[in-house]
Write a structure and sequence with these properties.
The structure is a single chain. A hairpin with a 5-residue loop joins strand 1 (222-231) and strand 2 (237-240). By secondary structure, the protein is of the alpha/beta class. Helices cover 50% and strands 13% of the residues. It has a five-stranded mixed beta sheet with strand order 6-5-4-7-8. A three-stranded antiparallel beta sheet has the order 2-1-3, with no helix packed on it. It has three domains: 3-196, no CATH class; 222-267, no CATH class; 288-415, Glutaredoxin, CATH 3.40.30.10. The protein has helices spanning 3-24, 26-52, 55-68, 78-97, 102-126, 143-162, 173-196, 250-253, 288-292, 314-326, 339-349, 360-364, 393-408, 412-415, and strands at residues 222-231, 237-240, 256-267, 297-303, 330-335, 354-357, 372-377, 380-386.
């Protein structure tokens, strides 16, 4: 049982107990309503926030759903729907936490939770998309975990809905609307800034400070295996490990009949957070080791779709590359497009640096910009920039002492240093 599922079960238990207190205890009904209101509001504020700091991630998730359900015609409005969703979540959370216009917002919350609870049971059964995306990249839940989480939220939503006429707010309307406006301004500023630059809070595997080589390797399963044998003469059931199995005692071993194998999992298998990240050249030769594992400074120019990349920055990048070349600093372009598109684009912008292909989806998790720039050293992510914020070479040289201090703070085991 995963930690996420254990937490969700505890959350459901709290919601159920809270409902019992509301329904059957007059003395505790008021605190029960407050608990439901605040917990539900906090969850929605958190859900809205983690999506708002990564609006492109929300767009990609909508696109995944549309493709899974054969609704590709909705893909052009995926970004708009992403903005709408996290703004609604954040405002709903704000209204519940600060007790604003709950007679109205409790209806919206109930409709919202009803729709998404039905949707998540469909997703859990059909599993068209493995990660629901309800908490962005901050917290990855399976579809069944999401459904169980929504059960708890639905209980809280019902408590507030049935008690909506009992909940009073003594503040005037202008104050209540002012608080809502502040909440909307906060989520809008966060989302617009993160869209134009990079996420204010990076929850992805390629965040600054991560050692990428540790993120591309799967965590293997570790288990104790017990072999169950039956003594054919006495009928006695015997259990052995691979070390204690008496296979060398051939006379005794002939008396044993294999019955079963038991496995006790000590460490579960976990896929690498970064998967399908293969840096290949036009001849399908892989360059992961020399680029991702470069012990010196290495710039990665990332474009998940080179045909949609912002062209205006490439003239500056040509100058930047020439200066990197003089100082023997690595510079490579990673693209999710085919080499026909890459070669055409390369001729258009007069790029002299090498281009490599990487899976488009994998590149979207590297940097939320097209193009974006990533700085590595010995496989550690030191900095990232959206195309609007690309540094010039002089700025990079000025930052180098900061990067060295940053590397010095990372434990030796993570930097690969001896």
């Amino acid at each position: 049982m995963s930690i996420n599922l254990i937490v969700i079960i505890i959350f459901i238990s709290i919601a159920f107990i809270d409902f019992l207190l509301y329904a059957f205890s007059k003395r505790m009904s008021k605190p029960a309503i407050a608990i439901a209101r605040v917990l539900l509001g906090l969850v929605f504020i958190f859900s809205g926030f983690v999506k708002a700091v990564d609006p492109l991630g929300s767009m990609y998730k909508f696109q995944d759903y549309f493709q899974a359900f054969g609704m590709e015609w909705l893909i052009p409005i995926a970004l708009f729907l992403g903005f709408a969703l996290f703004c609604i979540e954040f405002i709903l959370g704000f209204s519940f936490v600060f007790n604003i216009k709950l007679k109205f917002f409790s209806w919206i919350m109930l409709l919202f939770m009803t729709f998404f609870t039905i949707l998540t049971i469909v997703l859990a059964i059909k599993n068209p998309v493995s990660d629901c995306g309800c908490f962005g990249d901050a917290l990855i839940l399976t579809n069944w975990e999401t459904f169980f989480k929504n059960i708890a939220l639905m209980i809280f939503a019902l408590i507030v809905f049935f008690a909506r006429n009992k909940i009073k707010n003594r503040y005037p309307n202008v104050t209540q609307y002012g608080v809502l406006l502040i909440g909307f301004a906060i989520v809008l500023w966060i989302s617009v800034y993160s869209y134009r630059h990079l996420p204010l809070k990076d929850f992805m595997p390629w965040k600054i400070g991560n050692k990428i080589s540790e993120k591309v390797v799967d965590t293997p399963e570790i288990a104790d295996i017990t072999l169950v044998y039956k003594n054919k003469e006495t009928g006695e059931m015997l259990e052995y490990t691979s070390k204690t199995l008496p296979w060398q005692d051939t006379a005794f071993f002939k008396k044993l009949e294999f019955i079963d194998q038991k496995k006790k999992v000590i460490q579960e298998y976990k896929p690498a957070p970064i998967h399908d990240f293969m840096v290949d050249d036009i001849n399908k030769v892989n360059h992961n080791a020399e680029i991702i594992g470069n012990p010196n400074y290495q710039f990665l120019l990332v474009s998940h779709d080179i045909t949609e990349a912002e062209k205006s920055v490439f003239l500056l990048l040509n100058v930047f590359y020439e200066q990197c070349l003089k100082d023997t600093i690595g510079f490579a372009a990673l693209c999710g497009s085919d080499f026909i598109s890459i070669d055409k684009f390369r001729d258009d912008v007069k790029a002299a640096y090498e281009f490599y292909t990487v899976d488009e989806t994998a590149l979207k998790s590297v940097v939320r910009s097209n193009p974006g720039l990533v700085l590595l050293k010995n496989g550690v992510v030191l900095d990232k920039w959206a195309w609007r914020d690309f540094p010039n070479y002089k700025e990079f040289k000025e930052y180098m002492p900061k990067y060295e201090k940053q590397l010095a703070k990372i434990p030796v085991a993570k930097t690969g240093k001896k």
